[in-house]
Specification:
- With 689 residues, the chain is of the alpha/beta class.
- It has 3 domains: 12-312, polyphosphate kinase like (2-Layer Sandwich), CATH 3.30.1840.10; 331-491, Endonuclease, Chain A; 503-683, Endonuclease, Chain A (2-Layer Sandwich), CATH 3.30.870.
- The chain contains 19 helices and 27 strands.
- Strands 14, 18, 19, 20, 21, 23, 24, 25, 26 and 27 form a 10-stranded mixed sheet that branches.
- Helix 12 (380-390) packs parallel to helix 13.
- Mean pLDDT is 90; it is low at 235-242.
């Protein structure tokens, strides 16, 4: 009899903060080229901004609900305790961040790269800064004076400001707020031709405060940086008479004025100046109000100047052509012979664009259907679809308008497609359409043949250079015909098919995942080989985690590669001792989802658009597709095994969220999975696996 246990879970947001700590580790890792370390500070900062905009905002909303409403929403945890823990972790991370930034500045100086402030400029540099200020910066500045007769100005989300204090002895101070115009001007200005001496936009403004406020009398003038983060959740009302686009457009305007969830400010800011901000934003000093260094909005460091010092940057890894797709070849002919798996960013996303372009001009192609969740601003995918329309093809686009932070771009792209004659459907009511599908219908002989794309990532040529993802291209009827049925469901939500091969959320994905895990438990109890190998962004759903705990107790060996949130606690005796978890943080963002189940030594392989989160399994339209091709199965297993052997960038996930590097040396070699995978695809670009 199996001993019962009380399953335990890590709070998803505490786990996410642990993930962001792993990002911060990259900024301190001496093995990471110096300029890349600076960019990781920007990534960490951007991640934290979004966390406060979404997750902390969620808890703030919960605080405003009464107890009966909380009970009805099954909120049975201590909201204040979670926020207190979040604040403590964020405070500690902030201190680590400042220490890392100071060290990076010292390391930059050792490499003759200097980030200077307004007090460190030579005479010639001051003259250059002065000229730059009057020609470029001053026309963009809008200083707003703060006094009793003038209302506090609207402060944008995630934008750095200077709060200027004009101090006069024995008189009330005067205050002004200046937005640092980093959205229209570079945040970093090079003072030399080599570009190795750099000043921030903020400091050029500080240098010329007397030029801005020349008509005021004061004894001293100082400027202090601050930034707020606002609630970014969309409130979409239920007025059925309004179009979805209208509702979202109104909500986007409201988002810009969402309630503040965090204030960060210059630690040198005087108490009286800080109180001015707190009063305006209706924040308490201990409520997500964080002091920091002189500069904020470190996400701008992602776009740090491209200094010509190759040794301080990661070596280039240009995307490769797929070994089975020769230049100027018909992808239809190739896919008709065999399935193709494209691995980004090691292999190029241009193959997908080329396939759509080929379909756009192919006289045999009748129609193209596609799901669009996030696309590039100047999308080649959308351009190819428009070209198809102009060539007489029917184009159906399922556009998800509620892809967080991409809503405006998706509305813009949808309108472009509508103007050109595409049929556009705005997702499925009550579900986010998160699947990564397209279907090309082509007349071949007397039949219409379907060519399908199933992916783990978005149709976005920009992120495909940074995110690791998989695309399956197939005309296997077992898959392609079921993808066609998915699009029938998108057109008519009453048409719910019983899919034999695809796993679909919210209909069968959860059920099939559970059945696959339960089969491993049965096999383990029957003394058969039983194991599970999963690669995910996030593992949160408590029902699935509990089932994985049960599998562990039955003796199923479980390996998990999880980049971000992991609510499962591995390695606990009597609960999860047969479960191991690692997380890889490196130059590319690990984004692919892969499920492999032993299935009695006849493994089942799937790639999926879905993470194992309740929202993905129950409230989104997601697709997991089986991999039937034996060669592709070998590639997937090879790739996951290589990632599992990473002892350079893999961290071990444990009960303490300690993020220790996996340091075991396999056969005396140091293995970086991403570098090794690139070399694998480069070696094999001219042949099959």
């Amino acid at each position: 009899m199996v001993k019962k246990f009380e399953p335990k879970f890590v709070n998803r947001d505490i786990s996410w903060l642990s993930f962001n700590s792993r990002v911060l580790q990259e900024a301190t890792d001496k093995r990471v080229p110096l300029l890349e370390r600076l960019k990781f500070l920007g990534i960490f900062s951007n991640n934290q901004d979004e966390f406060f905009r979404v997750r902390v905002a969620f808890y703030k909303r919960l605080q405003r609900l009464d107890k009966s409403t909380l009970r009805s929403q099954k909120i049975n945890f201590d909201i204040n305790a979670v926020l207190d823990k979040i604040n403590a972790i964020v405070k500690d991370q902030g201190e680590i961040f400042e220490d890392i930034y100071s060290q990076i500045l010292r390391d930059l100086e050792l490499n003759s790269i200097f980030i200077v402030n307004e007090e460190q400029l030579s005479k010639n540099q001051k003259l250059f800064a002065q000229e730059y200020f009057f020609e470029n910066i001053l026309p963009s500045l809008v200083p707003v004076m703060i006094n009793k007769s003038n209302q506090f100005p609207y402060i944008k989300d995630r934008t750095a400001y200077l709060l200027v204090e004009l101090f006069t002895e024995n008189k009330p101070g005067k205050y002004s707020i200046i937005e640092i115009p980093a959205s229209t001007l570079p945040r970093f200005i090079s003072l030399t031709e080599k570009g190795n001496i750099i000043i921030l936009l903020d400091d050029i403004i500080r240098l010329h405060l007397d030029q801005i406020f020349y008509n005021f009398k004061y004894d001293k003038i100082n400027a202090y940086t601050f930034k707020i983060t606002r609630d970014a959740e969309l409130d979409i009302d239920s007025d059925v008479n309004k179009s979805l686009i209208g509702k979202i457009s109104e909500s986007l305007k409201s988002r810009k004025k969402g309630l503040p969830t965090r204030l960060v400010y210059d630690e040198g800011m005087p108490e009286g100046v800080l109180n001015l901000l707190l009063k305006n934003f209706k924040l308490m000093k201990d409520s997500n109000v964080l002091s920091g260094g002189r500069y904020h909005n470190f996400r701008d460091f992602i776009k740090f100047p491209n200094i010509d010092k190759e040794k301080l940057k990661s070596p280039k890894m240009p995307s490769l052509n797929h070994q089975l797709i020769p230049p100027r070849s018909s992808i239809f002919n190739i896919v008709k012979k065999q399935d193709l798996l494209i691995a980004y960013p090691y292999q190029t996303f241009h193959h997908v664009i080329d396939f759509l372009r080929e379909a756009a001009i192919d006289p045999k192609v009748k129609s193209i259907s596609i799901t669009l969740y996030r696309v590039a601003n100047n999308s080649h995918v959308v351009n190819a679809l428009i070209n198809a329309i102009k060539n007489g093809k029917k184009v159906l686009c399922i556009v998800e308008l509620q892809a967080r932070f991409d809503e405006e771009n998706n509305i813009t792209q949808a309108n472009r497609l509508i103007d050109e004659g595409a049929q556009v459907i705005y997702g499925v009511p009550g579900l986010k359409t998160h699947s990564k599908l397209f279907l090309i219908t082509r007349a071949e002989g007397k039949d219409n043949l379907h060519y399908a794309h199933i992916g783990t990532g978005n149709f976005n040529e920009d992120t495909s250079k940074l995110y690791t993802d998989y695309t399956l291209l197939t005309c296997d009827k077992r898959i392609a015909d079921e993808v066609a049925a998915v699009f029938e469901f998108y057109k008519d939500n009453t048409k719910i098919y019983n899919h034999k091969h695809l796993w679909l959320a919210p209909f069968s994905l959860r059920k099939n995942l559970k059945q696959a895990i339960e089969q491993e438990i049965k096999n383990a109890n029957a003394k058969k080989t039983a194991w599970i190998f999963l690669k995910l962004n996030s593992l949160v759903d408590e029902d699935i985690i509990t089932l994985l705990y049960n599998a562990s107790n039955a003796g199923v060996k479980i390996r998990l590669i999880i980049r971000g949130i992991c609510s499962l606690i591995p390695g606990v005796k009597g609960m999860s001792e047969n479960i191991e978890v690692i997380s890889i943080i490196d130059r590319f963002l690990e984004h692919a989802r892969v499920f492999i189940f032993c299935n009695g030594d006849k493994p089942n392989y799937f790639i999926s658009s879905a993470d194992i989160m309740t929202r993905n399994l129950d409230y989104r339209s997601e697709v997991a597709a089986p991999i039937f091709d034996k060669n592709i199965q070998q590639i997937l297993l090879h790739n996951l095994e290589l990632q599992w052997s990473d002892n350079t960038k893999a961290r071990v996930i444990d009960q303490l969220q300690s993020n220790n590097y996996k340091t075991s040396v396999a056969g005396g070699k140091h293995i970086s999975a991403q570098q090794s995978l690139y070399e694998f695809y480069k070696r094999n670009k001219a042949k099959t696996f």
